[in-house]
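Today's session is about reading a structure prediction critically. Students often jump straight to the picture, but the first step is always the sequence itself: look for stretches that repeat, for charged clusters, for runs of hydrophobic residues. Only then move on to the predicted structure, which in these notes is written as discrete structure tokens rather than atom positions. Here is the chain we will use throughout the hour.
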Amino acid sequence: MELYPCSPSTITSWSSSSHVHLQFIKPDQATKPKTTTCIYFSRTSLFFATPLRPIVLRIRTVPRLPKVRLRRIQNDDGKQRRISRVSFCSNTKDPRAAEYQKYVNSLNRFLTSDFVSLQALNSTRVFKVHKALLDAKCKAVASAFNGNFTERQYGVYTFSDTSEETLARFLEWAYGGDYTQPAVKRKDTTSEKVNKGPAGDQLESLDHPLVAHMALYIFSEVYIVPNLKELAFTKIKEAIELIERPETADDCLGVISLLKLAYTKIPANTSSAELQEWLALYAAFGLEELRDQPSFNDVLRLSPDLASKILSYLNPTDSPPWSGGRCKPWGYRSWQ
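Below is the predicted structure for this chain, in token form.
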């Protein structure tokens, strides 16, 4: 496992709720330091190690519980010296102290749990995750390590329908409460059109934030992770709001890929109806930019349900064909 040293100025978010923050302070800045140690962290966990320089570990006040502050971290006496316990001191009159004590107890159970491995199919990268955390965030996967399955025997769960990037973002969310997304690579700000290429697998592998969000949404739908599913939906809406109309080539491909995934990879059910309806409305809104793309027409052929929903949002033309007019035969109608 690769370990990365933290500098004294580093502030690292820790815990799945992102409410606990670790801050490293030089000894001369601390008041009555009780511990001088250097801490290392991997991508999934925190470790104590032999000090390279004197550093005091201080845990900042939790924002949501201002009268409760963590007091110290105790570590094991074993060779690995993994963080094993968190304790805190608080104002006993604070009515939220009991609530936070319950959270700390849960955190301690997470820190002392064993590691299991997650891996995407055809990928050599193996992700280590605390089993207790996995059980709290995704019971559908964690249960495989509890039954009479090969996962329990070998300690590895292989995802046959999830990419390595999506799995990494899921674990980032599980530990930190959020996940990063690929940056939009904008080549221009003009109305460049993409006039070739079917709506094939290249759309699903497109390095676009909308595709990353939808991949996590599909992961959450398949493995029953409602909190991540809600977050991914929120990020999809925020990203589309920033795009407004898909006027660039990258945005056109991103939106078309999003529509393809939403209507071909997610079954029509009540839990995803809001997402699919919202995207159909947006497709009707951006139809002027999307309708000239062959890949968009391919998606409509793959998903008659999407085509039907888009049609329901279009206004009828205001002139008959025998009038000789050549106005656009459609218009956008808002969703009420």
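Discussion point for the tutorial: The chain has two domains: 4-90, 181-322+324-332.
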